[in-house]
Amino acid sequence: MDFEGRVALITGSSSGIGAQIAIKWSSLGAHVVITGRDQNKIDSVIKTCESLSIRRPLGVVADILVESDVKNLVNTTLKEFGRIDILVNNAGYTLSIDFSSNDYIKSFDQMFDINLRSVQVLTRLVVPYLEQSKGNIINMSGRSGERAVPKAMAHSMAKNALNMFTKCMALELAPKGIRVNCVSPSVIRTPLVETSLGDKWIEFEKLCATIYPMRRIGEPVDVADAVTFLASSQSASFITGCIFPVDGGAQWTHRPI
């Protein structure tokens, strides 16, 4: 794979899918930028990466909703490495809420701020450097962006908009040599999902294993492998504007999860 010496900025990489991507790419020789809101979690991922590579990752504490943090994230990356080759917009959030709830509009704004607006803010800052390196962008969507999910209307709309943002950016940036793709996972075993479901997690995992044709839920490494394929100029140099499913065949079922 062609990751040796490349600089990859991965949001939401202090745990879950983002952390797995950072760990994999670090083992492939990339300079990875690990970012999140928790320094201890960042340090933990850095330690794992260091055990697999001679290249020390860069850790930056940042809240993707705070524009000054986002600008500092980009500037710190450039100061350390002088370039950016890959941007992975992985950070996201989901919340179940009824449309009739008094808090729905507040949650709607929150879903779009985290899952869509923040992606655009960071992408606008990074594109000039990706143009220099002929790099690429990977956005992280989900099945809810393609199929309505009960009590997740705002999240579904935000992810659907992210899918369209991916396609529009692919069209706009292709002449500049920048590829833009999106990965769309089904349920993946991450701390965020396990925490949000609480006591219902085990039951939910069994349900997914029954529904999904592959008879299991996804693991972070499944998504990391797909992102690695799309980010590689060797394996995916002619792929852009793609919404890439990593769902164990779930898209072909008639169930919303």
How is this structure best described in words?
This protein is an alpha/beta fold. The protein is 47% helix and 13% strand. The chain contains 8 helices and 7 strands. The protein has helices spanning 16-27, 39-50, 67-81, 104-133, 153-173, 191-197, 201-211, 220-231; strands spanning 7-10, 31-36, 58-61, 86-89, 136-140, 179-185, 243-246. It has a 7-stranded parallel β-sheet with strand order 3-2-1-4-5-6-7, with helices on both faces. Helix 1 packs parallel to helix 2, helix 1 (16-27) crosses helix 8 (220-231) and helix 4 packs parallel to helix 5. It starts with 6 loop residues before the first strand and ends in an 11-residue tail after the last strand. InterPro entries: NAD(P)-bd_dom_sf, SDR_fam. It holds the Pfam family adh_short_C2.
Features:
SDR_fam; NAD(P)-bd_dom_sf; 13% strand; 47% helix; single chain; 8 helices; alpha/beta; 7-stranded parallel β-sheet; 257 residues
- Rg of Cα set: 17 Å
Helix content: 40-55%
Report the sheet with the most strands, covering strand number, pairing sense and barrel closure.
7 strands, parallel
Strand line-up of the largest beta sheet: 3-2-1-4-5-6-7
How many structurally independent domains?
A: 1
- What is the CATH third-level topology name? Rossmann fold
CATH class: Alpha Beta
What overall geometry do the principal axes of the alpha carbons give? globular
The helix-strand sequence is EHEHEHEHEHEHHHE
Specify the CATH homologous superfamily. NAD(P)-binding Rossmann-like Domain
The count of strands amounts to 7
Low-confidence parts: none
